[in-house]
Amino acid sequence: MILKFLIIIGVVYLSILIFLFVFQRNILFVPDRSTPRLTETNVSEMSEVNIETKDGLSLNSWFYRGKVEKPLIIYFQGNAGNISDRDYKARFLIDNDYSVLLLGYRGYGGNKGQPSEEGLSKDGEAALEFAKRENFEASNIILYGESLGTGVVVDLGTLTKFKGIVLEAPYTSIEALAKKRYWFVPVRYLLKDKFDSISKVSQLTSPTLVLHGDSDQVIDLDYGKQLYDAIPQPKNFAAFHGGGHSNLFDFGAGIEILSFINSLK
Question: How would you write the chain as a 3-class SS string?
């Protein structure tokens, strides 16, 4: 009886492992695949642009050209929804005369392809190529990552020095987050997309701002602090009392971003 019980437990556990391994990208990436419409947002003055990736995808994204003396802010969203959900952030940046590119990931917002760490990295590189064609040099570009998007930004940030980097609700690595949530699983051996930011941030040469809420229930503040501690100077950390995972603009994150950018030479 004991042997039979152990066999049943083993089969159930193995089934859980197989399920998590097969469907892990469905857990990590939660895209809204519907095509967003600018006319249904509060940033209708933005333009739809197609960003071509090296592996042949055309990513529908939104672009606005601000004042010539202001930098371009390339925005990398989190794991859920699509770029239309971030229109309020674009609105704030546009109202402050910045150029803004909301990058539409593969598999999100009507774009073809399936999201992955490698794929999103290619999407980011394509966004930089687009910016270059629009006559924005790295020295006049701010990379802004939100949650999952901070991993994409950190990866891109190791390529060269940008005017600045903004990391909103960042993490050390997806492996660290997964180990906490799925403590009963050998995460290291099953994980496909690691977004291992903590091993890369020492290579950053751009001024960096980290934003995090102390009531974040998705990515604990401690992860943001650990990542911040590993980032070279110059850097700034803004913690928001009562701030959650997706509402930091309600707590003054926009003002912190403006102050940070204005401090850059």
Answer: CHHHHHHHHHHHHHHHHHHHHHHHHHHHCEECCCCCCHHHCCCCCCEEEEEECCCCCEEEEEEECCCCCCCEEEEECCCEECHHHHHHHHHHHHHCCCEEEECCCCCCCCCCCCCCHHHHHHHHHHHHHHHHHCCCCHHHEEEEEECHHHHHHHHHHCCCCCCEEEEECCCCCHHHHHHHHCCCCCHHHHCCCCCCHHHCHHHCCCCEEEEEECCCCCCCHHHHHHHHHHCCCCEEEEEECCCCCCCHHHHCHHHHHHHHHHHCC
